[in-house]
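User: Could you walk me through two proteins back to back? I'd like the raw sequence and the structure tokens for each, with a short line separating them so I can tell where one ends and the next begins.

Assistant: Of course. Protein one, sequence then structure:
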Amino acid sequence: MSLAGVSCLVTGAGGFLGQRIVRLLLEEEKELAEIRTLDKAFSYEARRNFTNFKGQTVVKMLEGDIRDAMFLDSACQGVSLVIHTASIIDTLGLVEKQLLWEVNVTGTQLLLDACVRSNVQHFIYTSTIEVTGPNCRGDPICNGDEDTAYESTSGFPYAQSKRLAETSVLKANGQALKDGGIFLTCALRSMYIFGEECPFLQNHLDKSLLNKNVYLRISRKEALVNPVYVGNIAWAHIQVAKALRNPEKAKHIKGHFYYISDDTPHMSYADLNYELTKELGFGIEPHLPMPLMMLYYFALLLEVVSFLLRPFVKY
């Protein structure tokens, strides 16, 4: 089923994944009525891409705060599909927990509430593998799927915030709308995303340039992850959007989460960065900068120092 005639709101539309979702929607769903792109601010490149689009789909840019309920009410009016990618991504503990909660948890709930008030029918949430793990023991997940039992006890604020937001999204499924419709939701747990204009890869590139074009090995070579190409995770969002409009398919996927990956070879984060850029002359350190056990103790020391200084220092 196509998205012909649908008015769609994409939050986080100025971001790495959000821009790719919008681009695919415009390329593949030419009879889409409208795309409202929402973000706190749009870069010059994103603005240019959206304003230069030539097609019958109306593209609007909305700049505002995901924590502003009135702004969200206005953004959702007349919309039937919301793809919610907006969030603060913080896997290093650099963002204050309160801000993470305000944007990732409260912002998501405010958006859900606005959707119900505005009779939005379908809601897709961009979740993350961080919701699952690794847990505090670092237990690996091998060949896992949605039915794999795994004790998820991550203490990282980012993972906690995404888990709470995802729970809110799935719990909202089935709510009755004022116009007699039913609110259908689904969450997509993405693996580590790579691809063109990836900000994470750019960060590692910048660091390697300071190390004579050599990537630091940030994890053991055997610590495999399951990366996913940005175009494929974007395509998954569009496929779910179409499935939610199909009553037969919707009854199977509504209220559930799904892991999204592809056939990218499994490898460590550092080796992925190397494979993507080795033809440009980049190399990679063969070993960790220090023995693994020493790294654990060093990380523990940094955690303790961070905890002690947090009331006095912002960093």
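----
Protein two, same layout:
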Amino acid sequence: MRALRAGTEGPLVARDRASRSEAKPLRLFIAADVPEDVKTTLAGTLAPFRDRIPGGRWTRSDGWHVTLKFLGATWPRLMDDVRGAVRSVAQTSRAFETSLTQVGVFPSARRARVLWAGLADPEARFGAMVKRLDDLLEDHFVPENRPFTPHLTLVRLTPSRDVGEFAPDLVGAAVPSRPFVVDRLVLYRSHLSPQGARYEPLASEAFGGVSSLPTS
């Protein structure tokens, strides 16, 4: 039998190490939620367009949220830092009112890769939270270097398309929405599958520091 050299691992040991939780990063993001009735109204407004966007992958309305920071693959050992950042930003934030505004695209209508519904942010409150999250997590995650546009992702297009070819009346269209209050941050874990993404809340911090989910 061939002896293992120092510093090498047999397949059983390697498999055991791969099964440990530390070897499995979590796909995480930090977001603000949107009320269910607002999402239902938006879904109804967009229904006539669903068959007019060839190759578009519509996101599920029950998963619509305002992503403030996408963390991506995150090692479990960083969870305390992530939770702490969410808590800190929530504790120093005040509840504010917003509403959906209009349909937009990234990066442009001629080369659209994402269609989204924007949110009103006249005092840049969303952007301020993004900046604080970036500052608190910059040792582990790359800060965002583009201006922040609060939005709900509606459709992803691969490859990019000229929206004017199939839905010229969609981009810039007003979105009916009642005003609603943003008053908490949620740390989500994203579970990917062929049926689409499923989002699991790991922590929820109300503005002012009241937590509604366990953080341990």
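Helices lie at 11-19, 36-46, 79-91, 125-137.

Let me know if you want the two compared in more detail.
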